[in-house]
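User: For my dataset I need records formatted as: sequence, then structure tokens, nothing else. Please produce one.
Assistant:
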Amino acid sequence: MSADFWAGYLSGAIGIIIGNPLDLIKVRLQASYTTDAVITFPHQHLSRFESASSLVRGAAAPILGYGALNAILFVAYNRSLVLLDSSVTDPTNPQGVSLYKLWLAGAAGGVASWTVSSPTEFIKCRTQLDMRPEVSSWTVTKDIVKTLGWRGLYFGGAITCARDSIGYGFYFWTYEYCKRLMASKDDDAQQTAMKVLLCGGIAGVATWASVYPLDMIKTRLQAQGLGTHPEDQPLMRPQNERRVLNSFQLAKETYRTEGLKAFYRGLGVCSVRAFIVNAVQWASYEWLMRYFNNPWNQGYAQVS
């Protein structure tokens, strides 16, 4: 497979390993609310971490899925950018390319990666919010398929797709814009590496800031059915046994009962996580791309 596939896959897996504990806190903050319209997830669960293992709860699905998601994302972005601008010879260094084309290529990458992100996000969300220690990503996956069928893995898929396309558009746009602002011919290797980390971190924060309300609604949409006493409930309920609100109904109900601030609950934690994860992820991606595209490494692999 191509260098950008493996560079994207490995950097994505690294990012998830680093960021999962903060992602767990973010998801629980988003899901905590009080309303009579849907089953609630109580605030006291935010600080309830049964053991050290709870900090990596729900990580299995993202580690496996997000590596593939990131690989698809970067491959689709690179190919889309070449299609949008035939002058591009190196998508990892698109000098002179219009920023709106970078946004469109990023949005295309987000739509392509949705095929993996939608089921991965659903499984991760349900696993992170369920308090029972015996519940794992695999347990949740089996129960979703058993209750809702294979199509159930894509529950909340429309809002996930919208989030990914918009968010990843700003992701690549911001990263390249920051690189152009900070570019200098006099930088040494250490300064270049620091700028990659900084640009990657800023891109991550900008991405989440642009789509955070959508992500909050997605989390609440996928969390429906997990109540205050999950030990007394099945992981999933059949459609005819539960009241399921759609994205628009959840948005209206949230605004009516909690106001605008609810749409940004957890943004601070998410921004810290986004900066750290994406700084490391972009640095890993660029290093891996240079490694895989090194002629010496390719020649050595062929001889081996």
